[in-house]
Design goal:
Order of helices and strands: HHEHEHEHEHHHHH
Largest sheet: 4 strands, antiparallel
Shape: rod-shaped
Distance between the termini: 25 Å
Structural class: alpha+beta
Number of strands: 4
Radius of gyration: 31 Å
Length: 304
């Protein structure tokens, strides 16, 4: 019975300060929306790392007649050089590191280049002789790139040993930066939400000061007096968290695993199931916001 009384008092305060409460809901929704977006981005980064790092390859590019590298001073790779590299790939020395490998000739490299740049005029100006042949090496442990570089980097006919992780790291660094920006914006918005919740509690305390005095005079405890005001802020914050949770789930389900997955079918995207991992965090932050706002407000404005 006491709980329903306190809840009724809280809704009474919400009606009296409806415009402020709506503002709290919207600011909390936006701020937690950024938190949800940052959480989804981190989940997506982790999934992509797990997927691509297992498939990362090391490319051993071979010298051409036009290679500018100092390791290609003798000219293009010879058939003997190429065979020596392939023999080493199958040797006991490389066995602990090499999972599998494929040879890509200059003609095959040109075909791939023309496919990638089919809509660009540059595809017609490049010849097979300008592109290096290469060995594409899949590693047993993607972290063992340096071992492959040491084994093959100084061999005759090798222009450069390239680790695809370098490109992946650049992509993931940009995604991490975007996640950091989202978190930074979320922190600013969460501070604004905290102040708005505190303002809501403060306004309720001012408009119902007489009721507070009467309750105190008849022996009501501080907890009984303060609870309705805390509930006002909590209800507003939880509504914002609910909206943010629905938006986060919809973004993952319809945006990532829906539209983006159709556009990029070769990439694994997270979906609504993974988004459920973020939702408890959003509600937890909403409760924390209310607790901090209450601490900032109740002692000062409800002492009678």
């Amino acid at each position: 019975m006491r709980f329903f009384f306190l809840l009724g008092e809280a809704f009474s305060g919400i009606r009296q300060n409806l415009s402020i409460v709506v503002s709290v809901v919207l600011v909390t929704f936006i701020s937690l929306g950024f938190v949800g977006a940052a959480g989804l981005l981190q989940l997506q980064i982790n999934q992509m790392k797990g997927y691509w790092y297992d498939r990362v390859e090391v490319a051993i590019f071979l010298c051409t007649e036009t290679s500018p590298s100092s390791t290609c001073a003798a000219g293009a790779v010879t058939e003997a050089d190429r065979q020596a590299i392939e023999d080493k790939l199958t040797s006991d020395e490389a066995e602990p590191y090499v999972k599998s490998y494929e040879y890509e000739s200059q003609e095959e490299a040109l075909e791939l280049f023309q496919e990638q740049f089919a809509n660009s005029s540059i595809s017609d100006s490049v010849t097979a002789e300008q592109l290096p042949a290469s060995f594409r090496v899949a590693l047993k442990d993607p972290e063992q790139y340096e071992a492959i570089n040491e084994l093959f980097g100084s061999m005759n006919g090798v222009e450069v040993v390239s680790d695809q992780r370098e490109l992946l790291e650049q992509v993931f660094s940009l995604m991490n930066m975007a996640s950091l920006v989202a978190v930074s914006i979320a922190v600013i918005m969460l501070v604004a939400a905290t102040l708005l919740i505190a303002t809501t509690i403060r306004l309720s305390a001012f408009t119902r000061h007489r009721e507070v005095v009467i309750m105190r005079l008849v022996g009501a405890s501080k907890a009984m007096i303060q609870t309705p005001f805390v509930l006002e802020g909590l209800i507003a914050a939880l509504l914002g968290a609910l909206l943010a949770s629905v938006s986060t789930w919809a973004l993952a389900h319809y945006g990532l695993s829906g539209w983006l997955a159709e556009q990029y079918p070769s990439t694994g995207f997270i979906g609504g199931t993974e988004a459920l991992q973020v939702i408890p965090l959003l509600f937890g932050i909403a409760i924390l916001l209310t607790a901090v706002s209450s601490m900032l407000t109740l002692r000062k404005y409800l002492n009678v």
